[in-house]
Amino acid sequence: MKPRVLALLWTAALLLAGGFSQVVAQTTQITVMTHDSFSASRETVAAFEQAHQVTLQFLKAGDAGAALNQAILSKSNPMADVFFGVDNTYLSRALTADIFQPYASPLLAAVPDHLKLDPQNRLLPVDFGDVCLNYDKKWFETRQLTPPATLEDLVKPAFKGLAVVQNPATSSPGLAFLLATVGHFGEDGYLGFWQRLRDNDVLVTDGWKDAYWGQFSGASKGSRPIVVSYASSPPAEVYFAEKPLDEAPTAAVTTPGSCFRQIEFVGILKGTPRLALARQLVDFMLERTFQEDIPLQMFVFPANREAVLPDVFRRHTRIAEQPVALPPAEIAAHRERWIQAWTETVLR
């Protein structure tokens, strides 16, 4: 065979080999286990995939509690490399299960200290949201009734039959609101508040969707003008409105002691064979590209203080200045007892 032909064949072989290795690199996969409410834009996911020649797979495993249960049960044979969605109501349980390995991402420098709840950095804060009362502004304006400003207002005769809340045994915001009442009224007072709220004809639903989209007058044909939701629900109403709105049709009650702050974390699961990639993914989730995608995807706030909020958030939302705070260990120790006592008081 002539030397020129041999050279051409050798060049072709090198090109094919290079192309094959590129395909292999591009098909490397990293899996994120998360809850059903997780969302990220295609552009943001693609940015990480292209930068690292990897495919991101998201394994949605129910609500945050159910997803965490699966991660714990599969700890000897992890189903994913990274877990996103543990919040501060389940933080102690997650850490006690010992399924995460520490990683002090350099991006933590841009995260406020009050969001960092694990000194060993097994779980790193990604976002936060305030669970609070929301109300239908038009409903109250039409009736010339002052909307609620505090939790105490809910038990007043003027608000009888107006509120809908979620069951804390089946709903994440429902649990967060229960914790807000525990923190606000104390162990000796929260059940008394709930008894008075029951007497004031509060409606309880299993989940946020039924409460907000089924019973809340501000978002549906429902008859209840007060609902437990998020401080970021008003900008969502503006963002998803069929016609442009200058003002949100709903408002959140963010007065001191009326909200519970949920913080969501990401962690690297022990046993991942892709540790370097997992660390790069955690870094990416704390960088501005991912952080600035969070508000209009999951309607919560980015943990990175350098992330720029979209205009609709800046104009139509308020962050609670003094949310209720309960230590994760205290929540873990008493959560089930508080839920059971609530159930006995409100539903039976």
Q: Which key features would you list for this structure?
A:
alpha/beta; D-Maltodextrin-Binding Protein, domain 2; 2 domains; eleven-stranded mixed beta sheet; 11 strands
Question: What is the structure about, briefly put?
Answer:
With 348 residues, the chain is an alpha/beta fold. It has 14 helices and 11 strands. Helix content is 41%, strand content 17%.
Strand content: 15-25%
Q: Tell me the CATH topology of the largest domain.
A: D-Maltodextrin-Binding Protein, domain 2
How far do the termini sit from each other? 90 Å
Q: Which regions have little confidence, pLDDT < 50, spanning 5+ residues? A: 5-9, 19-26
Q: How much helix, percentage-wise, in residues?
A: 40-55%
CATH superfamily of the largest domain: Periplasmic binding protein-like II
Order of helices and strands: HEHEHEHEEHEHHEHEHEEHHHEHH
**Overall pLDDT confidence:** 89
Described by the principal axes of the CA atoms, the overall outline is globular
Rounded to the nearest angstrom, the radius of gyration is 24 Å
CATH class of the largest domain: Alpha Beta
Number of helices: 14
